[in-house]
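Sample A.
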Amino acid sequence: MTRTTQSQIIVIGAGIIGVTAALALQTQGHHVRLLDRKGVAAETSAGNAGAFAFAEIEPLATPGIMKKAPKWLLDPLGPLSVRPGHALRILPWMWHFWRATAHHRYDAAVAAQASLMTLSRQALERVIRTTDAQALIRREGQLQLYEGAAQFQASLPAWEQRRRHGIAFELLDNADAIARIQPGLSPRFTHAGFTPDWLNTVDPLRWTRHLAHALTERGGQIVTAAVTDLAPRPDGVDVTTDIGTLRADQVVVAAGAWSHRIARMLGDRIPLETERGYNTTFPTASFDLRTHLTFGAHGFVVTRIGDGLRVGGAVELGGLNLPPNFKRAEILLRKTARFLPGFDPTGGTQWMGFRPSLPDSLPIIARAPKSDRVIYAFGHGHLGLTQSAGTAELVADLVSGRRPQIPLLPFRATRFGG
């Protein structure tokens, strides 16, 4: 396909991946229209934990995890569960997940994730600089907390993975060392790992809107429209929406958990599942939080959002249609009250979002198998905000016909077959 220096590009999806990709394309000189059925950050990007978690290079599909999975999956309020009404639908995804736990696939996924994280960290700093966004970033690090020596020892292989990939961290083996970073924790937490280069945004909704504002200030368009069909042509792509048909030279699909439905319009069947995440946000902070806290064994985090706190996490595989189960959010608050003495669990606002998850925890960043005029950029799971800037630069490379900054073979759309 011949690519012009300036192209008409439509980006489908105005979450953090779509907005950041649209901005990167515009920076490269392309004319960009951003389409979303609800608007900017109207879904998952509004309510995530606000973390740029560049240290999180280990996929969910780790060797040996299938031995633990039955216990987790049968606990409806555990850190990983499958909704009964969705269990049969998820079987194909679980088969691919099981295959991803093989040692050679796991090692390849870690390496690919680490390369995307390195690029994304560098790309984020470029976005912060070019959009004057330093005021929206917190550089406070992150504590991964452990209850006892046995739990800490079990985590050491993952920390060694991070060391091999150049991630800076400090391991803490006593309560005094932990308290110097985050005082006031329950004494049950005896060990921790601290990642000083971990970043957060003050609010993921504000962050995404800030980038969208930069896009429109520079001439980009944001259109509220639901996509109903994609039709590649020899000279472009027709995008049919509920407000009419639009034409583009190339199209980027970045619609998060809904992306597989758009891919199916082209005949591509992608095993994209939905990690439903729950949280509760408090407008004011009842605990003096000084860093991002991760309670890995319990599957949730506590983070600062604006002047308040957000408590959220867990993985519920339940698709897009079942109603929320906010008991999952409530159990996290009960745990937080035990873990953070003085924390007040009242007065918060509950939320549930859909995180687009692929079985090997890697996103798809690639041209669509059925059309080289369509680029897929979805499937980032709970790392969408983290990997948004790096993904955006890779999308811009693909659209412009440049050699991508990292190898994209691990992120190809065809890796699951079909």
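Sample B, a different protein:
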Amino acid sequence: MQHLTYQTLDGSRAALSPDELDALAQGIRGGVLTAADADYEQARRVWNGMVDRHPALIARCLGAQDVRHAVDFARSHRMLLSVRSGGHHIAGNAVADGALMVDLSLMRTVRIDPEQRTARVGAGALLGDLDHEAQGVGLATPLGINSTTGVAGLCLGGGFGWLTRKYGMTIDNLLSADVVTADGQLRVVSATQEPELFWAIRGGGGNFGVVTSFEFRLHPVGPQVYAGLVVYPFAQARRVLQAWRDFAAGAPRELSVWTVLRQAPPLPFLPESIHGKEVVVFALVHNGDPDEGERLAARVLEFGEPVGSMLGTQPYAGFQTAFDPLLTPGARNYWKSHNFAEIGDELIDALIHGASNLPGPECEAFIAQLGGAMGEVAETDTAYAGRDANFVMNVHGRWQDAADDDKVRDWARGVFRDTAPFATGGGYVNFLTEDEESRVDSAYAQNYARLQQLKQRFDPDNLFRMNPNIAPAALARTA
């Protein structure tokens, strides 16, 4: 076997001998892949089709000891390291050219304790895995809205979805975690064990170690909820968005109503004449009494004259998969995001202008309604700093042909620019693209300096840098 070249932390190239490769493989129960292996191509792929990178090695971990071994190996060889759970992050940080990828995707075990209302979740689990197991006993924790998203990446960046207004963010429901830090140590962190590291991982992303398992608090949810979609023609956009804004201000926490501006997909409840035309979609979930959910949904039907709706009582876990067909892996994706404290008329006009110039049928701008329990946690109680965001916008550029790259990215950047005057100035790190490293410090706001100090303590050499990166305090001073 020949020597294998890899990228070091300083950007240079180095080589591993066959004996060194064997030493790595002996400590990884799931095996180690190189480009010569049949499973390598599939294992290196991530959700965003724009990301096409080739790691030197892929360590397929089955447990925390595998992860420790891989981290020790990368540190001792000063090898660029990336960490993959669901592989769903827009920037594609799970994979890097010439790196050692710590692949957690096989660690998908979910164990529910119905009496204690907790879930122990492996680092490779997807949202659908946790929803499936927890909903079997009528429980859930706040997660995102795409069942193929990885729990680990979602949680470490904050995490929000349909249940956030009632039960807070994903990180607000994290009770403990197992973390392998840059020194190769396995640490159990919680509010009472290693509280500083526990604070940092609740929003600080993968900057502080590899989380191998999570323990979440669960809440009674469903299994049936009142949910669905209401669709309005684009000509009514200003009217219905203003009505939504006013309605959202007084909505109970059990209800979340998000809006999406896009071209109408060929949904069966929409007339064919509207397919492919710009529309305003309201997606809602009510976690409570179904009759109350129906009464509140009727208010959404009164925003204007809808062209179609699909509302009713349905399984919560089923609605969690409702948008999966629009978010399948392999397409090209580019996002731009803002946080908003409120939705003013000028912001509505800017959104309408952006949606009137959609560059393709898969592109959209959505705004999530948040607030409620999320906003009751102090900004400094977790690393996540965006509690003042009652709304989060994601300008979602999605397309298939590389020839359209510039067109779609320019559109997304234009909407981002036009809506910036109305934003809080913060950001959601899970929505930051690869070219937005300059926004990381503002995303963490007043928490950034503390995060840099903790990065210096737990990862002084910045081994965990394939993420929206927080530089260690010493490195930041010398930059």
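Observation for Sample B: Residues 405-419 form the longest helix (15 residues).
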